[in-house]
Amino acid sequence: MIDLKLLRETPDAVRAALARRGDSSVSALLDEIAKLDVERRAAITKVEALKARRNEASAEVAAAKKRGSDASSLLAEAKKVSDQIAALDAALRELEAEIERKLLFVPNLPLPDLPDGDASKNRLVRSWGTPKPQGGAPHWETGERLGLLDLARGARLSGSGFPVLVGAGARLARGLINFMLDLHTREYGYREVEPPFLVRREMMIGTGQLPKFEDEAYRTEDDLFLIPTAEVPVTNLHRDEILDGAALPLTYAAYTPCFRREAGAAGKDTRGLLRVHQFDKVELVRFARPEDSPAEHEKLTGQAEEVLRRLELPYRVVLLATGDLGFHSAKTYDLEVWAPGVGAWLECSSSSTFTDFQARRANIRYRPGPGEKPRFVHTLNASGVALPRTIAALLEVHLQPDGSVRVPPALAPYVGTEKLSR
Predict the structure, then answer these.
(1) Active-site residue among 20, 260, 316, 365?
(2) What are the phi and psi torsion angles at 45 (to 5°)?
(3) Multiple choice CATH, 119-420, 3.30.360.10, 3.30.930.10, 3.30.1050.10, 3.40.1280.10
(4) Are 151 and 140 in contact (CB under 8 A)?
(5) Annotated catalytic residue, options 275, 316, 360, 361
(6) Assuming Cys at both sites, which of 233, 332, 395, 410 could form a disulfide with 352, CB separation 3.0 to 4.6 Å?
């Protein structure tokens, strides 16, 4: 969440930054928070004055008793003041809770170097590879022809958006996961984690998925949530902790399935693997010092890009404009892979820095040096990468004239073959 102190001390700057997102409702929300904060500070001042009066009354009672005087009126006043303090303390707790609830709906502040505007203002940063001309079979045709995908049975089992990978298709997915985990752990030094796939509500709040996007999550009857990304459990590994600043950055890689309702996405890009409700992904999470996070973000993005380079998939890196930025992100690069069969650039990874937004929600701090006051850490993550659209691109980019699909050399040992064929 945003820093309430920052909002209090520099309200115009905070409002200007959030206005860049193009969401007019945020201004009204900030007005409500500012009003509640004024009430809160007034209540604190009143409580402190009453506590001072209670202390004076206690001293007067003690003095009266020492003199042998009647202290009943003083005791009555002290009790009245104590009752007022108790009532104000209760009201103050409710004010603070209401401020906290409203702050959870305020998005992160975009960093200054982002372009303003909606998705049409996203900026191309760089590209790699030579895209094949548009054309050829879309991945769902190739996948079903080669016996890799069974979309009909997946829909029969769970409904639209739940594909089944079979035979060499399942082996391709498993090979991609192992390839990416090995790359990130062996070459880039990430620590591998296998986290739970169900988390408590406060973990979803900690990373920013709740409360605003609860309708896009799958929830069990006992209020556990199927994770939409490994970012949720892995970031919360250090919830309520103070990290050693000398040990930063901390880096984690995790494979998990991911579950998303994608509310409002019905009818959009629903063919094949383009938009699904359950998918596999390798996620990269980094904890860094604030002064290091810009460089850490570039490093993280480059590591996700390396996956696509080794898979020989032409891609581009796009800097998202403020109006296309995720709720909890301060800056995001999308990695888009070219899929000639559907004639589109498909997002297969988002690399984001959240500054201290998630750390404030999850109370993750670090101590810069011995004896120094703890500060909030910066969190970053990227998909390294998500499987569905990567598989779609592989089946379309590496489709051969004879109908088989070439498996890139970096991936072939993990799949056990150099080509996928009937």
Answers:
(1) 260
(2) -60, -40
(3) 3.30.930.10
(4) yes
(5) 275
(6) 332
| Domain locations in the chain as residue ranges | 4-103, 119-420
pLDDT tens, position by position, 148-184 = 999 999 999 999 999 999 999 999 999 999 999 999 9
> Which of the following is catalytic: 347, 367, 375, 404?
347
Decide whether 4-103 matches 119-420 in CATH topology.
no
User: So what CATH class is 4-103?
Assistant: mainly alpha
Clarify whether 260 is annotated catalytic.
yes
Alpha-helix runs per DSSP H in 104-220: 139-145, 151-158, 168-182, 201-207
pLDDT tens digits along 20-64: 999 989 999 999 999 999 999 999 999 999 989 888 888 887 888
Name the catalytic one among 293, 329, 349, 350: 350
> Which secondary structure element, helix H or strand E, spans residue 380, and what is its range?
strand 378-386
| 239 a catalytic residue | no
Active-site hit among 40, 361, 365, 389: 389
pLDDT of residue 268: 57
Between CA 221 and CA 150 the distance in angstroms is 30
Is the overall model pTM greater than 0.70, yes or no? yes
Told to judge if 389 belongs to the known catalytic residues of this protein, a careful annotator would answer yes
The residue behind tokens 């509640």 is 36
